[in-house]
Amino acid sequence: MAVVLMATWEALSRWVVAATPHTMVSALVSGGPVSLVYGFILALIGALATAASLGEMASMYPTAGGQYHFIAKLAPEQCRYMISWLVGWIGTFGWVAFTASAPFLAATMIQGLVVLNYEEYQAKRWHGTLIYWALLAISAVVNIWGARLISLIENASSLIHLAAFVAEFVVIWVCAPTKHSASFVFTLFRNESGWSSNGVAWSIGYDGAIHLSEEMTNAEVAVPWCMLGSLAINGMLGFAFLLTVLFCMGDFEAALNTATGFPIIQIFYSITGSAAGSAAMTSMLIIMAGLATIPLTASTARMLWSLTRDRAFPFSTYLSIIDKKTSLPVRSVFTTSGFLVLLGLINIGSTTAFNAILSLAVLGLHMSYLIPTGFMLWRRLHTPEILAYGPWKLGKNGCRSEHCFHPVSVLHLHLHGLSPVPAGVCRQHELCLADFWWSAYCKLDILAVEGTKGV
């Protein structure tokens, strides 16, 4: 499930090589190939460290609430409930936005293919929203009435995920008419982002297994290995796909200025020389984005259900009820789907606003990772006797893992952008939010070093 949920190499086709009004700030524009290559490596190291730390906590406390339950166990007594509630809401909002990104990617890619094959077609925002809603409806139906099929769908998705990678990897390398030099891939830097320094994109979503831990067998061991395994597999596939695209993408400017809204579609067209070939390769990405919507919805619904079970969400008594026939949190699935449908209305008014909300998935999820790992580090250094480790533990490597993740995560929070702006224009509201979390991180580290008993 986690491998399909992350779908790193497919996601790279949008978040790494996308740069039009339909999408967020492009990594190619905000640094170029060099920032992608080295940024990906740095992101993977930070993500592995994060997953290891979260996996250890999941082994100790295997609950659907995940990070906010970890806070309730690890934070000082005088502030644990407030911080736990805050992290629960931040994480849930991040998961809702993260879930919306998959069907939105599939919907807008479908529009891009129509533009490629029918030049007279005028892509409208409401067209994409209708497709987005259709994918959400399919996901909700499968999660509620087709629960028995989810395991089969996930296994099939994993096979498609790997088979599609091999197929596209071979086609790109064999059919690409020209290839860029190693200096283009590993040394070329360009910055049109509006910032005076690099920015990098990070991997998220690997905590999805945590929120299904109450439905897993031997979750104390299975969840940590699931998280690390999905990161390792997707990390290797993602990096290989990234290098493949950078070496074989052809005309840099043509890819960025494509009318389809997706440089990856233009790259496929340049490589295959035909609209049909580009459509076939892009269809694999669309299928995977659509399939990823199902486990994303499942994880988000469990996160919401956990909040309602702990009476931390409006109408908790009603929403926390488990359906007797299916033994599933059906009302939470409906509520999650309803939130996602409402998000689609924003896209009808403004794609930029919708993309800004989707980008909060990265910000929100990283916040939900940062805070519990900070408290885990604090407890590990100064009150280790209260930690009841599960069967999966890091031992002495725990501190190294948490120290590795924190600087990377805080750097990401500090530089993360919510929407494209002209060069030279700074995002003051984002800096204020990032500075707040930078201050919180510094406070946690000071407490960890000094051994202060409260926060």
What does this structure look like?
This protein is mostly helical and 455 residues long. The chain has one domain (2-450): Amino acid/polyamine transporter I, CATH 1.20.1740. It has 17 helices and two strands. Strands 1-2 form a two-stranded antiparallel ribbon. Residues 2-6, 15-25, 193-202 and 417-455 have low confidence and may be disordered.
What is the gist of this entry?
The chain is an all-alpha fold.
Short descriptors:
single chain, 455 residues, mainly alpha, Amino acid/polyamine transporter I, two-stranded antiparallel sheet, 1% strand, disordered N terminus, disordered C terminus
List the helices and strands and how they pair.
Layout (H helix, E strand, L loop, with lengths): L1 H5 L1 H8 L14 E2 L1 H28 L6 H8 L5 H38 L7 H21 L1 H29 L6 H6 L2 E2 L27 H30 L3 H5 L6 H10 L2 H35 L6 H4 L10 H20 L1 H32 L14 H19 L12 H23 L5
Antiparallel strand pairs: 1-2
Count of alpha and pi helical runs: 17
β-strand number: 2
Low-confidence parts: 2-6, 15-25, 193-202, 417-455
Quickly give the structural class.
mainly alpha
The H/E string reads HHEHHHHHHEHHHHHHHHH
Q: Provide the domain count.
A: 1
Return the CATH topology. Amino acid/polyamine transporter I
- Rg of Cα set: 21 Å
What name goes with the CATH superfamily?
Amino acid/polyamine transporter I
> Which CATH architecture would you pick?
Up-down Bundle
- Strand order across the biggest sheet? 1-2
CATH class descriptor name: Mainly Alpha
The fraction of residues assigned to DSSP E strands is: under 5%
Fraction of helical residues? over 70%
Label the overall shape: globular
- Termini separation comes to 37 Å
